[in-house]
Fold:
Amino acid sequence: MRGTYFSNDGSLPEVEIRELSDLLATQLYGKLERKVYGLSKQDVSELVAPYIEDLTPDDQRSVAWLVWDLFQEGLKIEMQRRRRR
Structure:
């Protein structure tokens, strides 16, 4: 997925990296459901790699980290909901 606007070095703008990360996280959650909360950063990197191979290495790392971070935030929300019950 290449963005409409490029920087001189071929990397995606931050907003597009975030949008792509959100989409990938949603897709992975849709397939794996709550199992995503147990994935390591390496696991996430391997799962998203086929979808982001055309990005720069820095963008690939950013997307993988953001997807993993979204899962960590989701886990925190789930844990808070359970405590309130």
About this structure: Confidence is low (pLDDT under 50) at residues 1-5. The chain is about 70% helix and 0% strand. The CA atoms of residues 45 and 64 lie 5 Å apart. The two ends are 41 Å apart (CA to CA).
